[in-house]
Amino acid sequence: MRDVLDELAAVGRAMGSAHLPAGDAYTMELRRVYRAELDDVWSALTDVERLARWMGPVTGDLRAGGSFEVAGAEHGDILRCEPPHLLRVSWMFGPEADAWPGTSEVEIRLAVDGPGRTWLELVHAASVVEPMFPTYGPGAGGVGWDLHLRGLAILLHHGESPDHSDFRASELGRAYVRGSAAAWGEAHLAAGGDPSEVAAAVRATTAFYLS
């Protein structure tokens, strides 16, 4: 349980606002430090073989202007790529999402945070009109990103590939999901969310990820 609590505490979370090509958006913002060199973290984010070890199989033309697909689900275009500091992509889920271009983008920024340490900021901006937000709040995507960043930590810190399925089915994994959903509820409240709506969103998010 200590490891689960430490992983949850390692991530700073916030909810903000942004403007996408399709209009106004809300943001899920995650920040943490990895015990790894900057180039090593960048490689884990952009090398196909290493991406597969912590996120899932990735295919496509992985360069600025290219496109990608993650494990037959998330997909998008590479909008900016400035090694080893900045990566921005469109981030769509499911074939129906392609009917709504410009509604979801992910930007990752890296910086040196001292010897052998790299600071990572991930900002996922999603259109305010996307259908999941009223039910799940920022935890809809936020819990998923927490799970992915935990997997990245396992790869960078231990050289191992996480088993996401086994972890989520375990008691520790279920505790992690509950803690992540609650943390995103706190970020939602801090951004001005209505307490009753936030509480309902946390319950819905927890049930969705644990189902």
From TrEMBL:
One Pfam family of this chain: AHSA1
Domain called Activator of Hsp90 ATPase homologue 1/2-like C-terminal: residue spans: 36-156
Chain segments annotated as coiled-coil in the UniProt record: none
InterPro entries linked: ASHA1/2-like_C (IPR013538), START-like_dom_sf (IPR023393)
Gene3D superfamilies with a match to the protein in the record: 3.30.530.20
Family per similarity comment: Belongs to the AHA1 family.
UniProt name for this protein: Activator of HSP90 ATPase
